[in-house]
């Protein structure tokens, strides 16, 4: 069943469109990749899906969450779905976490907020989640501050936070761009494992075709605020229709010929 | 009067505001600030040529009179025309404000540059001195100097100037050392460019707008400081008029002539608000440069 | 932490030394003979010599300097030129007015200004938020003594609700009267300090609001106020502690002007009267003590900042 669906999503700032006419839909267990060059509007689209655009930006179109249009809805209604139905993981795990709050409490927070758990139950669940994202020595680690963790560990914490309240859709906005290649591969493996386990639908944003292709089944290509291509990963890779997608595939092919990307699995 | 310069308070103003910058000199704070300040400046300049009455003209028949066609702002308990006093007070405020800011910059900017350019040890020493001068507020400094030398315009200017210079030095050091650690400055240094050349070519062009905004804010601080000193009887001695002393004299007659308190206070407020708005406006106008610099600093 | 504390205290002692030296050299080494300027014109040479002797200016400068530092180290600030009473005793006699005045204005302005500053940041685009910021800006631009005079005019002259100034002769023996005479001064100082604090708190709050972790909290379903409540205190604490340090110091200094407006017999009026009477030992003693207080507050601020921000603890 479709959880999240947009039709004709357009984002403007001072009358200038930054994102134009984007339509996409996500159900549980879907794996959609959104790819495009820097500044093409991927992050803005992601933020719009959570109603978190910077003030001053206007949206039009429709954003259906469980069939209800949330575009222009009051914050009160958005808050019911954020973290519970739709969650997001951001690119930079260091700044996305509170530098002065123990990571365990950061994971426990949403559990207390949405599920009304008391402090000790929520902390116990936080430890469980640290274990599920394969953080070492979870019982001790929950008391650490973000700067005491490695970049990869921080992103694992961010994933645990986002998934703790069992959302049905997870948006991952370039979650591995800030990490080095080996850590990147580990996080991708973890992400693959978690979405299999939890059945969460994934919208994976990246500008790196091999990375997206390794994880997604459906591919969206974005350029200057528009979707220029949409289709199963295989089709897009074999028969890119837009010139831009052809370019992407060609340059990715060049890179892969030089070195197989250390992404787990293979192109599906 | 020991109000610290509210520097950098507005630089974090609207982090999430989309890039919708009012360009050029049309920024409202700049325009309003400039208008207020120009009005005060005009009063001061006109007073050089003309004022409704002479400085020591008293009108014994109209003491503590309210505003009237003869006395636009009323008279005080000696029958002196308050509008004349306000105009001449503007002159004192502008003069002492400008001179103090000049003193503050002549002391503070080289000190700050020295701290930024010199090695760690010298930097720590200068920072220490700055910290102590900041702990040593203008008012106390003025009191020390007045005790020994008596109240005079020169003492007021020195005390305010030295007091404000600490903040100027602090800001200069921070913005200059940000430039000194930039890649292109390091590159210039490895090419053997001398420190003076680096200063002239790279540092000053990158920090002058920060200093300009600071000068505006410092002027406001100096005007309030001058008024406070004259209110306490430690500023420019009579007969030179001053807003602060007008207030001190009007305080005892506030129950019969409240307008005599109102106007000099408003004059100070208009000047200070004007100059603060001007500072905010300048920041906005110069913002593209500031923003680029800030982004560069983050890397 | 301990080694930091030791270093920081050493730094404080160094600063006190420099501040003491500054007071000394500003007054003695600059041109002019204090003894001559201190006395009215036409004093006899004997009188001048007597003053010189009392000030110690008849000895070599370095000897004077050593003596001044030695006195400071042992807590001796000398005697008043006119009353011959020890400076320290005179200062102590004024504290019962100045300390309550400065401290209650400090505490009150925190209670009033912190919520207002946070509100002004959260609602910075709303009408009320803009109005609050504008008022604060005005409060900073208005001279504190002018605010005081207007408060007197309104409350004491127009409404006759409270005394316009002065302090009971019997001091705190009649607490009711003492408190009554401090209400308006405290209110005035609170308006002035509060305005500054509103601006600082607003800017610190805006800073927290712009952080990505606030966006993360909102993406997990927190409302903006709740996200601010969750992350604001711990992340704003270091800045706020620093601001409070500045505020405490400027509350103390503000009393000098406030006591003059309300004719209160506190440290500030002692200082002002001594400046006008040119009672050098009292002036330099009071100035040194006030500066020392500001420096000590600075130390406390630095230490507390380290305690609230664990990231600072590791670094040097
Ligand atoms: N806060 C903002 N204010 C103004 N313009 C913005 C803002 N955020 C984004 N933009 C503009 O919107 C466009 C799309 O930005 P977006 O962040 O969505 O790009 P992106 O595809 O995520 O790029 P990247 O791969 O670099 O993250 C860009 O042209 C950018 O300049
Ligand atoms: Mg992006």
What do these coordinates show?
The complex is a heterotrimer of chains A (268), B (299) and C (316). Chain A is an alpha/beta fold. Chain A is 41% helix and 26% strand. In chain A, helix 4 (103-115) runs parallel beside helix 7 (151-163). The longest helix of chain A has 18 residues, at 181-198. The model of chain A is unreliable at 261-268 (pLDDT under 50). In chain B, helix 2 runs antiparallel to helix 3, helix 4 (138-149) packs antiparallel against helix 5 and helix 7 runs antiparallel to helix 9. By secondary structure, chain B is mainly α. Chain B has one domain (36-52, 73-298): MetI-like fold (Orthogonal Bundle). Chain C is an all-alpha fold and 316 residues long. In chain C, helix 5 (87-122) packs across helix 8 (175-209). The model of chain C has no long low-confidence stretch (mean pLDDT 85). Chains B and C meet through helix 3, helix 4, helix 7, helix 8 and helix 9 of B and helix 1, helix 6, helix 7, helix 8 and helix 10 of C. Adenosine-5'-triphosphate (ATP) is lined by residues 13, 18, 36, 38-44, 54, 207 of chain A.
**CATH top level assignment of chain B:** Mainly Alpha
Estimate the mean pLDDT confidence of chain A.
88
User: Roughly how many Å is the radius of gyration of chain B?
Assistant: 22 Å
Report the bound ligands by name, code or SMILES. Answer: adenosine-5'-triphosphate, magnesium ion
> What form of chain A results from the Cα inertia axes?
globular
> Which structural category fits the helices and strands of chain A?
alpha/beta
Number of helices of chain B: 10
Order of helices and strands of chain A: EEEHEEHEHHHHHEHEHEEHH
- Assign a percent range to the helix content of chain B: 55-70%
- Give me the CATH fold name of chain A: Rossmann fold
* Order of helical and strand elements of chain B: HHHHHHHHHH
Rg of Cα set of chain A: 18 Å
Q: Give the N-to-C terminal Cα separation of chain A.
A: 23 Å
Largest sheet of chain B, in brief, is:
none
């Amino acid at each position: 069943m479709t959880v999240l669906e947009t039709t004709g999503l357009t984002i403007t700032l001072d009358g200038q469109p930054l994102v134009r006419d984007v339509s996409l839909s996500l159900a549980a267990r879907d794996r959609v990749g959104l790819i495009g060059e820097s500044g093409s509007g991927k992050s803005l689209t992601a933020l719009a899906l959570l109603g978190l655009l910077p003030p001053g930006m206007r949206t039009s179109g429709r954003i259906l969450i469980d069939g209800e249009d949330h575009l222009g809805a009051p914050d009160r209604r958005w808050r019911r779905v954020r973290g519970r139905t739709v969650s997001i993981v951001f690119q930079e795990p260091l700044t996305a976490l509170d530098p002065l709050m123990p990571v365990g409490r950061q994971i426990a927070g949403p559990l207390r907020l949405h599920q009304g758990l008391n402090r000790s139950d929520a902390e116990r669940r936080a430890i469980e989640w640290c274990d599920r994202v394969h953080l070492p020595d979870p019982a001790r680690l929950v008391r650490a501050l973000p700067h005491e963790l490695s970049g990869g560990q921080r992103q694992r914490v961010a994933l645990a936070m986002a998934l703790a309240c069992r959302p049905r859709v997870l948006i991952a906005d370039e979650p591995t761009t800030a990490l080095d290649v080996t850590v990147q591969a580990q996080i991708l493996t973890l992400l693959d494992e978690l979405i299999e386990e939890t059945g969460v639908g994934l919208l994976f944003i990246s500008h790196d075709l091999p990375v997206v292709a390794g994880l997604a089944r459906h591919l969206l290509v974005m350029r200057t605020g528009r979707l220029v291509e949409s289709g199963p990963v295989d089709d897009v890779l074999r028969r890119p229709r837009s010139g831009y997608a052809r370019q992407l595939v060609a340059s990715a092919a060049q890179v892969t010929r030089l070195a197989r990307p250390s992404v787990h699995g293979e192109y599906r | 009067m020991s109000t610290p310069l509210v520097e950098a308070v507005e630089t974090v103003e609207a982090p999430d505001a989309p890039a919708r910058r009012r360009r050029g000199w049309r920024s409202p704070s700049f325009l309003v600030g400039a208008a207020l300040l120009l009005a005060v400046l005009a009063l001061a300049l006109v007073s050089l040529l003309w004022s409704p009455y002479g400085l020591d003209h008293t009108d014994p028949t109209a003491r503590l009179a309210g505003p009237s066609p003869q006395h636009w702002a009323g008279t005080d308990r000696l029958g002196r025309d308050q509008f004349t006093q306000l105009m001449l007070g503007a002159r004192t405020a502008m003069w002492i404000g400008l001179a103090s800011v000049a003193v503050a910059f002549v002391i503070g900017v080289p000190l700050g540059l020295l701290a930024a350019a010199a090695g760690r040890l010298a930097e720590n020493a200068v920072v220490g001195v700055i910290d102590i001068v900041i702990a040593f507020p203008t008012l106390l400094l003025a009191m020390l100097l007045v005790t020994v030398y008596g109240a005079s315009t020169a003492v007021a200017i020195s005390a305010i100037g030295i007091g404000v210079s600490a903040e100027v030095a602090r800001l200069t050091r921070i913005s200059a050392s940000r430039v000194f650690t930039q890649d292109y400055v390091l590159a210039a240094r490895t090419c053997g460019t001398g420190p003076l050349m680096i200063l002239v070519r790279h540092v000053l062009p990158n920090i002058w707008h920060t200093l300009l905004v600071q000068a505006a804010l410092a002027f406001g601080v100096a005007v309030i400081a001058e008024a406070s000193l004259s209110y306490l009887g430690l500023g420019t001695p009579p007969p030179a008029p001053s807003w602060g002393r007008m207030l001190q004299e009007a305080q005892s007659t506030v129950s019969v002539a409240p307008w005599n308190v109102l106007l000099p206070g408003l004059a100070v407020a208009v000047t200070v608000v004007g100059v603060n708005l001007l500072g905010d406006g300048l920041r906005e106008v110069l913002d593209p440069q500031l923003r680029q610099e800030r982004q560069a600093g983050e890397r | 932490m301990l080694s930091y504390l030791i270093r920081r205290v050493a730094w404080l002692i160094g600063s006190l030394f420099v501040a003491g030296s500054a007071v000394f050299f500003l007054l003695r080494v600059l041109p002019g003979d204090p003894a001559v300027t201190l006395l009215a014109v036409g004093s006899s040479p004997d009188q001048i010599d007597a003053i010189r002797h009392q000030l110690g200016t008849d000895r070599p400068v370095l000897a004077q300097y050593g003596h001044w530092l030695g006195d400071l180290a042992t807590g001796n600030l000398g005697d008043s030129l006119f009353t011959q009473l020890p400076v320290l005793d005179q200062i102590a006699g004024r504290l019962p007015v100045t300390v309550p005045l400065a401290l209650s204005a400090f505490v009150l302005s925190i209670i009033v200004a912190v919520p207002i500053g946070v509100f002004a940041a959260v609602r910075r685009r709303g009408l009320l938020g803009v109005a609050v910021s504008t008022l604060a800006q005005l409060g900073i631009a208005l001279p504190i003594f002018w605010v005081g005079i207007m408060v007197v005019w309104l409350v004491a002259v127009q409404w006759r609700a409270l005394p316009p100034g002065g302090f009971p002769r019997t001091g705190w023996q009649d607490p009711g009267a003492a408190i009554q005479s401090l209400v308006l001064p405290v209110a005035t100082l609170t308006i002035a300090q509060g305005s500054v604090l509103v601006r600082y708190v607003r800017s610190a709050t805006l800073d927290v609001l712009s952080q990505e972790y606030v966006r993360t909290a909102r993406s997990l379903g927190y409302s903006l106020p709740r996200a601010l409540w969750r992350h604001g205190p711990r992340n704003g604490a270091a800045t706020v502690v620093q601001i409070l340090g500045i505020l405490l110091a400027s509350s103390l200094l503000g009393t000098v002007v406030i006591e003059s407006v309300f004719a209160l017999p506190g440290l500030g009026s002692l200082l002002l009267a001594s400046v006008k009477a040119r009672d050098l030992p009292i002036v330099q003693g009071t100035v040194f003590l006030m500066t020392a207080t500001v420096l000590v507050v600075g130390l406390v601020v630095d230490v507390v900042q380290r305690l609230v921000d664990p990231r600072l603890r590791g670094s040097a």
